[in-house]
Amino acid sequence: MIRFTKHNRLPIAAVLLSLSACLAAVSPSCAEVEEARTDTDPWSGYWWPISRGEMLVPLGKYDALIGARAAAWERANNPPGANVPKWFGYCHAWAASSIMEPEPAAAIRVQNVGLGVGDQKGLLAACHANDVANSFGDRFGDGQGSEDPHDLPPDEFWMLLKRHIREQGVPLIADIEAGDEVWNYPIFAYRVEYAPAGGTDRYQGTISIWMADDAVPMDYVGVKRLFKKYLFEVSMRNGSVVMGTGKWLGTSRDNHPDFAWFPYVVRPENPQVDYGKVTKILGTRPAGGTTPPDSDTPASANTPDSTPTGTPAGTPSGTPSGTPSGTPSGTPSGTPSGTPSGTPSGTPSGTPSGTPSGTPSGTPSGTPSGTPSGAPSGTPSGTPSGTPSGTPSGTPSGTPSGTPSGTPSGTPSGTPSGTPSGTPTPSGTPGGTPGAAPSGEQPSRPPSGVVVQARPEPLLLDPMDLVSLIATRTSDFALDITVDRFDGGKYREGDLVSISGKSARSGYLYLLAVDTEGVPSLLYPQPGDDNRIEGGVEFEVPARKSKYQFRLFPPLGDYRIKGIVCEKPLEFSGLVTGSQQQVASSPQAAQSSQTSDGKEAETSDVAIDQQKFRWNPTQRAQVKQLLTEYKSKGNLSQEQVDHVDPHNVLGEFAQDEVAFYVGKRGKTPLQSGKVQR
């Protein structure tokens, strides 16, 4: 049986294996698996960056309905503008609301004031901007606590995932950025795979987490998945994890979760926002106070800077007596709103009552890219249970508000909450759909009587999967791609570019662009495209009848396009969805999609980097560095990509690559080639 026990760090006599030997040791014959999923999925929502001032819109509508001055307070205390760090926002407030509130799923009208889904989610975020919470780990970069760059250690992170998700069936919020910035996401599923790595007590493996993403439009409904894998090692003795011996490995040494937290009492930061009135406007039940998981383990005990109106008069049931712990603060100078303040206690004391599954129910091969099997599908639409309190001024109940009163749709009846069911999914085969498909991205319904083959569930790739896919030079079958001016072609800024090719097999076509700075983007498919192609038949992107065309904008320099054809559709973790693309893409593309009289053009211009990825800063920097080196040297070692083999993730696939150059208009001689259409 695997337990977590607290010991002092002990010297390890055995020489640790190299990272490559570590991963080789995690073989199908010896790997063990622990996995679980929450009873109710959190929902994806917008993160409301302060610099753009977009939170003023829902707050203005709230003011119009009840006569408050919430927007004025927001403008005075969180003024938007170019001087505000771009990462300051309400990701913490969205994350807390997504696990404590039912998701708004449709626009409503109250007293002739229209509230879209985004407006409703914005108001809920405003209500949760200063929730009382338990926090674990020390935030790096705030000048307080240990400032240990390796905190949160993997052994403690594993224990927190187990206690919250597996034992309690509730999500855990984590800041996944190890640096100064704070990037909060609610985690709803995890999988740990580990195996002996030499010596008598050392184990190495991976921690995979699935989160709700906030790289979505304001009115998005459902769960857009964000997926991350981390490498770690830990000591185990007599079947117990030795607390304090965990270490991150590979790229995870610098890119790992910083701290984690769980909110349990709703508390707005804006004194003009009344939670009870917001829930009345939205027609939902107020979330009661929740019993923090791990309540027998002291967390960071922090006292809010000031006691707002409506502070719970009593201590939530199951909470350690004393001051509410881990209270996220407001927006201190230089600190993003909602960062849990204070110094956590480090390694929680006590031994978890449950026992992780020490014996795997199946033998996974490689690194899983899907969601743990047995996971419920769809987004729960019910109202979380809990005692309605009207406003947060009452004594919170002990019923977790994140736990639904019924069984979510798609959850097998009788399955214990948080307990993995069935056989762990082998690498590259996702074990269930964790959430609703993105709104507006479903394929159109076929005419009556037309039979259309169902599209398989996509394989979800994390950023290192993406890097290894771009850097691989091996194929299982033939694929040839080129640009209209052929490999090595020269273009000028503003020129159009198209890609053509042929695959020996049918499959799903993906085109990934890497710009001159090493930044990747998804060139194809564009939203609404059917990217299935027939084997042996030439394809062209964009197709002749497409309503868009690819136009080249800065940055100027050398570009690479990697073509991939695989048997199953792919989903890329962190890909920006919907209207956020418009903010991230080249402004020239948006301007050129209109005619001179301001009308929408029949064919719109799309920048090849329009579909960007939104990753935490350390992850983004790692990807950029690796792809820049790949462009320079033409290959990456297995150690550099954390030993990810894309053939283990995707199965059989084909790849090909084409390079071209983009120079300034009027200064780059054109290379002869095919005439642009």
Write up what this structure looks like.
- With 677 residues, the protein is an alpha+beta fold.
- The chain is 17% helix and 21% strand.
- It is built from twelve helices and 26 strands.
- The chain has helices at residues 19-25, 56-66, 70-77, 91-100, 117-127, 154-168, 275-282, 463-471, 580-584, 587-592, 617-633, 646-650; strands at residues 3-6, 32-37, 108-110, 113-115, 132-136, 172-175, 184-196, 202-212, 225-237, 240-243, 247-249, 259-265, 459-461, 479-483, 489-492, 496-497, 499-503, 507-514, 520-524, 532-533, 539-541, 548-551, 557-566, 570-572, 604-607, 653-663.
- Strands 1, 2, 5, 6, 7, 8, 9, 10, 11 and 12 form a ten-stranded mixed β-sheet that branches. Strands 15, 18, 19, 20, 23 and 26 form a six-stranded mixed β-sheet that branches. Strands 14-17-21 form a three-stranded antiparallel β-sheet, with no helix packed on it.
- Strand 6 and strand 7 (184-196) form a beta hairpin.
- Helix 4 crosses helix 5 (117-127).
- The N and C termini lie far apart (66 Å).
- Residues 5-28, 294-371, 373-452, 582-587, 589-596 and 668-677 have low confidence and may be disordered.
